[in-house]
Amino acid sequence: MSELPLRAQLASVLGKSAASLSRATGRGDGSVIGGRVALKVEPDLLGKLARGRRLTLVSATNGKTTTTRLIAAALRELGDIATNEQGANMPTGHITALANSPDARNGVLEVDEKYLPQVIRATNPAVTVLMNLSRDQMDRASEINLLAKKWRDALRTSETHVVANADDPLVAWAGLGARHATWVSAGQRWKEDSWCCPECGGHLKRDPDPHWECPECGLARPDASWAVDNDDDVVVDPNGVRFGMRLNLPGDANRSNAAVAMAVGAAYGIHPKQSLPRLREIHSVAGRYTSVVTHGTEVRLLLAKNPAGWLESFAVLGPPDVPVLLSVNAQVPDGKDTSWLWDVDYTVLADRRVFVLGERRTDLALRLETDGVPFEVADRVDDVVARLKAERPDLPKVDVIANYTAFQQIRAAYGRVQ
Fold it and tell me: Do residues 34 and 96 lie in contact, with contact meaning Cβ atoms separated by under 8 Å?
């Protein structure tokens, strides 16, 4: 990385000091406040910190944090990595991540969907990863078609190499604006936000899956050079070589995330035989998929923030005899509008023991009642586990699905498990 100008050096030092003070006083991890202080001193600090580095930006509605962690693990084959893999995904967090690793030649930054065009322009990234787009926090974010157009416009004027999911029409349309692209057949379980052509508005033909095309304007799925075979738990590289994945992160979505990470690694010259072992070392990401033990029972934590995320979480639940705890808040980081609950099909839980928690448990309870899913109301995870253990002393496991702030509250109650 090139030497920072004096003003940028001062901004970086002051930002680190603010972050340290925030951690020392227990107000947070400092990643946001540190960036805010630094930006006050040097508004162009992000671009200056990015200069001379080879950066990968990662954006999507779901899976950004996990994929950032996976890519960072793969790229550590090359040495130290500057990354915000704990999820501070706006420019303030990017500044903190880069300032904390001044000597790292390579970096991986998770980027909030809304900020991606701005960060592309500021950092001139080597690689930009686009994975999926669906409705999320509609009281804060743009309509996803408008978001995809902003991505596409930013990519048209950039030299960044895009690694994108060919199976998501909105993502593919945005990625087709780039001059250089690698396409991954990463799948798309949630299709309710992409039945219409993002180019002309026509109805997309989606048969056989994963193919899609628009009969009106001819927009069609790009040919993918990487693909995930979920049935055989393998990823197929551009040469047709099949690699058994055997990840310690569950579900099809994480196979897709790992395939994207391997494709990015390959763009940096890292062979899948080198990257895969590093991906297999990851068991949880910022508390996601981790398990804690309380009252002698394993409690597994799953994060789901929107309909697409809940659909993926339902796909990795334990057997039907494993109780499920659902927790929903509606704070600012979650989005205050909970109408998205009505887009989720909860009938898949009908044969399970279900508990509802969180600040908006009544919204969730009404939604379950409408779907005919029996439920019980509770205040705390520990209370539910204690109640279940009294009825079933040999209870081995429960699954918890929670949206963002509810997840963080539960995670904090167990000592902020990693």
Answer: yes
